[in-house]
Amino acid sequence: MDAATIHDQASRLATKAAEVSNEAEKLIQSTKHLVEVQAAAAAGGFDFLSLFFIFVMACFVGFYVVWSVTPALHSPLMAVTNAISSVIIVGGLLAAGPADMDFSKVMGFCAVTLASVNIFGGFIVTQRMLSMFKKKK
Predict the structure, then answer these.
(1) CA-CA-CA-CA torsion for 21, 27, 29, 33, nearest 10 degrees?
(2) Amino acid 38: pLDDT
(3) d(CA 21, CA 19)
(4) How many CB atoms sit inside 10 A of residue 4's CB?
(5) What does the alpha-carbon distance between residue 11 and residue 2 come to, in Å, rounded to a whole number?
(6) Nearest C-alpha neighbor of 93 from the set 77, 111, 79
(7) Which of 30, 63, 66, 125 has the most Cβ atoms closer than 10 angstroms to its Cβ?
């Protein structure tokens, strides 16, 4: 290798390193913004009405997404619903953690209970649907 080739490769690597550094800086800035939003939410920066509005809009979007699914996609949708319910279980367990009893603890317990019913019921329905496709002896 001659000096010109090494210089070209080094300059390309330096350019890529600068690009990676810029991307890392953008990620750091977006993470800082996310942390600020979460801190504002935790400190009560969002009022009940705005959070309730987000909840109602999520209900409408979920309703229209589920009812517009073709019948061929119901089994994969059920699997995704079970995965989402498992995330709800984790959040509910965190909300219902060991401490004094208040409204969030009760809601966390309800979330764990309903998500558990959804998960196990979803697995039962999926198993029954898959058994319909097995060859009969």
Answers:
(1) 180
(2) 66
(3) 5
(4) 8
(5) 15
(6) 111
(7) 125
Identify the burial level of 74 via C-beta atoms within 10 angstroms of its C-beta, where 0-12 means exposed, 13-18 middle and 19 or more buried.
Answer: middle
pLDDT digits (tens, 9 = 90+) for 45-83: 567 777 788 888 888 887 777 677 676 666 666 666 677
Residues ≥6 apart with Cβ < 8 Å to 113: none
Distance (Å, rounded) from C-alpha 22 to C-alpha 50?
A: 35
Residue with tokens 């977006």: 30
Task: Using the structure block, give the residue that is written with the tokens 């029954």.
Answer: 128
Q: What type of residue is 110?
A: C
Task: Dump pLDDT digits (tens) for 106-135.
Answer: 777 888 888 888 778 777 877 787 777 777
One-letter amino acid at 62 equals G
Q: State the average pLDDT over residues 79-96.
A: 72
b/e sequence 11-34, b meaning 16+ C-beta within 10 Å? eeeeeeeeeeeeeeeeeeeeeeee
Q: What is the average pLDDT across 91-97?
A: 73
The amino acid at residue 58 is: A
Q: Which tokens go with 30?
A: 């977006």
